[in-house]
Amino acid sequence: MLTTDQLLDKIRQAINQLPVYGDPAGLYEPISYTLNQEGKRLRPLLALLSAQTFGGNPDEALPAAIAIEIFHNFTLLHDDIIDEAPLRRGRETVYKKWNINTAILSGDTMFAIAYGQLSASNPSKLPALMKIFTQTAIEVCEGQQYDIEFETSGNVSIDSYINMIRLKTAVLLAASLKIGAITGNASKEDAYSIYRFGEKLGIAFQLQDDLLDAFGNETLFGKKTGGDILTNKKTYLYLKAIDVASAADAASLKDLYSRRNMNDEEKISRVLSIFRNADIEKLTERIIMDYYNEAIDELQKIKPSEEARAALKNIAESMLLRKK
Amino acid sequence: MLTTDQLLDKIRQAINQLPVYGDPAGLYEPISYTLNQEGKRLRPLLALLSAQTFGGNPDEALPAAIAIEIFHNFTLLHDDIIDEAPLRRGRETVYKKWNINTAILSGDTMFAIAYGQLSASNPSKLPALMKIFTQTAIEVCEGQQYDIEFETSGNVSIDSYINMIRLKTAVLLAASLKIGAITGNASKEDAYSIYRFGEKLGIAFQLQDDLLDAFGNETLFGKKTGGDILTNKKTYLYLKAIDVASAADAASLKDLYSRRNMNDEEKISRVLSIFRNADIEKLTERIIMDYYNEAIDELQKIKPSEEARAALKNIAESMLLRKK
Fold it and tell me: Is it true that A1-155 and A187-324 share their CATH fold?
């Protein structure tokens, strides 16, 4: 079995060889700029690890794995327009560095290039790969739409929030794993279990991100905390606090989230104090552990040996232990 | 052989059955709004006619034909943002009726739905269909990028303009025909000839559109003429006039195209008068006929009987005889 580093090398090489240079430069430069940013390559790594877990050849999963990575980066280009985000991984976002039209059109091209990579898969697997890839792409768009709608909705339930992060974040991790399972000739049951593993893990991962945004160590987290609070983002922390806090605290939390012209430090500190009163950090850690344990339960169901599963479990742990 | 009307019925039914309803409504309503606008359905019609020409079953070409139609409509959503177009087929464009973010995200979803349709094709044809579809999608983006760049470029050659409209408009018509050829088990040579037929026809079609925008009969053309002139669009007419007009006329044409605050009627009439001096209407008609004849030459190369070709020739003629 290849190590994580060896698999990451394969991913890096494949990305370096993508057809993302050439004319018109105004279209391709933003694409190579985006794909050359050293991300974690988490999704393609999960795909290759999953293929290996089921005894498949990681090379066979590589085209679909790269397709997922390109698709993920494409969604960032369009999301950054929608979220008006100036920075991504410490660098200017495409719509800021170029303009909105470029970010739209270069993003569209990336989506097509992603399918171009996918189509280099083994033809006998292509219909199944296209099905999961396309279903997932649509779900990610649905998740992003819910995210947009929740910004202005006064009535978001915890269930609908979890469903939103499932669609926006978790299904793509799940699909990465399923793609590996398909190329590794896993049984339908195993492919479903590994998908569910990724889905639960992805939800835990996003909840962890929400938690770190409020309570993380800034040095380890790699960015300033409190961003979600300042943008009035109704994360699990906020929704749970509205649920369990005293009536007075819930009211003042709602009030704080309706204000736009308040001193940043003061707003963060007042929201965090309400979160602390309601024990939100512990409650969030608890639900993260619940999803994590459900994920591991799914992983236990798959046929491959304990040894083969270990690599996936390691990744799962590292995803949740990060930045603490 | 089915008639054009029978084929259009199939297309209409397939579009009515698309999975473009449901939640989140904010994502799907703009999609059904777009797809329910009765367009000419020219691209899927070409695909089905082509399949039939090669003795294939139009039903087998239907998923890919619908994929092309959805893709085409998706590009309109994003192009209308880029071109700041308020109206399309007499109705408000999606970004105007909703907003830019919705037009971006609903468009992205349509792109995925297009591939979802494509993947319902016969699995043995899927790799070839994906290849032409993806290559074409990328080329259409390249064409749109060139179109954007030409707006601010002072130095556009006629060749690069023709290449731009080839990418932006012609290759999708060509791909529609090729998709029909693939599902009809055409030989490689025939598939290539029918592609070239579509490419040449598409260039003629776009040049005709440029011509009608300046010299068309407004009632038959269905919209006001002079739009390209008012937006200083460097079409074939403009580029050819710069080439062949007197030095004084060329200079004043350039000057007119640099002005923004001029009376509309006056600007149109002065530009048209320069076009007339340089015999641009006749010169454009000549190049349209050249491309049309090249298209028909390609059509003659394909193996199927004269009778089978007749339907495609009829469509080609009707595309160029429209609105005169």
Answer: yes
